[in-house]
Each structure stands twice: as structure tokens, then as C-alpha cells.
Recover the amino acids of this structure.
């Protein structure tokens, strides 16, 4: 299978949206000050997250950076096996989210590889996230639902036996066939 433009375009779109909103937040918001949007349910609040989700691992930022690099590489490798346009879009969205937060880890203060992720969307004081987080979680949920519905997501690796798809056609395993 060849690289799908949808994969790269979606990834690039998420990265641009994520970095643009982070840049806006850095210029428009004061760290720690909450700006309500929908009462107590949704607000804007600039924070710098050294950890993962829910600030887990905040003392191990460099480990999170290594994990983020590995996950990003895996998404790129498996993204090539996206079987349909919609799966290429979803995997591209996940890649964009991973890259958006990885850029922060690599290039933001306090140092290279230990940067803090810029978060600004406060969900009722339960957690604070950003556009990259929305992309990652949204793509993951959609891919899990697709898998539960037996929708084809990734082609089998070269050499694996062909697997029938729900439409009755066999999925090519040599990587040469392109499905829409």
C-alpha cells in the first residue's frame, strides 16, 4: 500500500491547530487564571503539564518523551497499513495529536526532552487538556468502536494470510492493493 495523502494531511492539520491554539493560549491567557466558557463545565485555563494525562509521571518527563517518540514512530509505521480512507484519516489525526504534544516535550521549557505540555481546556476541574489531547482521545475512541464493529482498519502485514472483509472481498496482503 502506498502512503495516503489523507493520513499526512490530517496529521498536519491537527499539528497546526494544536500549535496555533497553544500559541494563542500563551499570549492571551495568564497561567492558572480560569476563564469560564460554559459555567463550571468548560473553561480556559493555561497550565504547563510536565506529566502525562492527569499529570501522571510529572517527575519523569524525559521517560514520557521517549515513550511519545516510540508511539509516534509506531503510528507512522502502522499508518502505512491503513486500509481505508477513513482509517487513514483516524490514524493521521492520532499522529497529529502525538506530534503536537511531542513538540512541546522536545522544545518547550524547562529543557530539550523535558518540556512541559501547554494545556488550556479545563473540563470542569477534572482535567485540563489541549487540541492534541482531543485528537488522540477522539481517534482512539473511533478506532476502538470500529474494531468492535469489525470494520477493517489496518491491512495485515506482508506474508500474513488474507483476511476476509465484511463485504466478502479478501484483503490483499502484499501491500500492492489500495482500497478507498
Amino acid at each position: 500500500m502506498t502512503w495516503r495523502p489523507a493520513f499526512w494531511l490530517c496529521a498536519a492539520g491537527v499539528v497546526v491547530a494544536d500549535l496555533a491554539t497553544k500559541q494563542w493560549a500563551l499570549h492571551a491567557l495568564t497561567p492558572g487564571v480560569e476563564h469560564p466558557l460554559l459555567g463550571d463545565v468548560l473553561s480556559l485555563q493555561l497550565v504547563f503539564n510536565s506529566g502525562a494525562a492527569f499529570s501522571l509521571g510529572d517527575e519523569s518527563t524525559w521517560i514520557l518523551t521517549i515513550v511519545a517518540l516510540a508511539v509516534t514512530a509506531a503510528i507512522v509505521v502502522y499508518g502505512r497499513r491503513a486500509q481505508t480512507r477513513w482509517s487513514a484519516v483516524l490514524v493521521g489525526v492520532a499522529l497529529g495529536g502525538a506530534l503536537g504534544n511531542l513538540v512541546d516535550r522536545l522544545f518547550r521549557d524547562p529543557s530539550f526532552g523535558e518540556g512541559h505540555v501547554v494545556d488550556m481546556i479545563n473540563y470542569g476541574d477534572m482535567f485540563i487538556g489541549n487540541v492534541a489531547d482531543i485528537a488522540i482521545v477522539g481517534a482512539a475512541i473511533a478506532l476502538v468502536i470500529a474494531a468492535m464493529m469489525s470494520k477493517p482498519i489496518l491491512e495485515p502485514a506482508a506474508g500474513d494470510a488474507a483476511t476476509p472483509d465484511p463485504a466478502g472481498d479478501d484483503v490483499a496482503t502484499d501491500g500492492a492493493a489500495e482500497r478507498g
About this structure: The chain has one domain: 5-148. The first helix runs from residue 5 to 28. The first strand starts at residue 34 and ends at 38. The beta strands are 34-38, 42-49, 117-123, 127-129.
